[in-house]
Amino acid sequence: MRRSKLCGKRMVLPLLGTSFEPGNAEEAIQRIEDSQLAEIARAEAYYFSARAEECVKIVKKYLSDEDIMLRLSADMLYTFASLTLGEAVAAQKAREDVHQCFHRALKDDWPMEMKAACVFALYVTSIFLHIPPEKNVPSLESYLPYLPIGQRLFAVNLLAHGMYLQGEYAKAQGMVQSALLMSDKIYPIPMIYLECVAAMCQINQKDREGALHSVSCAWEMAKKDKLLEPFIEYHGLLQGVLEVCVRKSEPENYKKLVDGVIAFSRGWMKIHNPQMQKMVTDLLTPLEFSIAMLACRDWTNQEIGEYLGLSVNTVKHYVSGILEKLQIDKREKIKEFVNQ
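The structure assignment produced for this chain is given below.
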């Protein structure tokens, strides 16, 4: 790895870190004076609007850039866009480069902002894939003060997501709410993710109305710029809330979400749990997956039906179909396939 340029005003994922009114993402990109940062922001817009191929075309040339902020941004975007495109090897290679940048940052005398960007990128490419960071990785909390506010909000989302994975739902929800309340401007991309994590926590505390409100807030913010990707990534963990909010009222957008969920899930399974890839992603529809997620968390058919707006008999039919497709005989065994 060549010596990296230490850049003053550049930041990782500039669009994510930009405050703008929902619906004005294009204007926000055009306001970025640095041409290379503006190009990265364009790639972000493509990625977050579920246009992975267009994102990859832009970021490829930055994967070996001497500017560490451009390189880390490209690595993060390339990792997840490649997963959507089914290129697990390419995604893993980009993740490995994040680790190389991180270890170089610790070894060399880099400014704290640069080190913070490396730690941030490492957590992004770990938490979202449910892969624990290495034991020698410093805590993300210790680097929060060195991140710009937008990236800081997204970092809080990562921390809350990590707490969610540990079953600390109330604590994670409290962290999300504090972050949303403390921000005096709108940062649409990190705020959409924060609302989704809040909903995930509320679902697992069986706060149906709270979860619906959180997702509705996120969706109203996202759809003005067609930012579908957060809901694609979190679909399984949202456990049916999208179906309630979007499936009937916005069928065209729901169809786009379904297509994105299937593509992303296949890529996610290739890097995380390849032996389950065919069964989970090819056999279960997104609605069946949502029902399966709730069923394996001990929700009754009546609770699932009330939550999703389905009759008990319809839920029974779906559960029976899920068991048949997964070739299992007990409801309890669903957890082995979908509770990732």
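Interim note for the steering committee: Residues 1-8, 274-279 have pLDDT under 50 and may be disordered. The domain at 240-340 is CATH 1.10.10.10 (Arc Repressor Mutant, subunit A).
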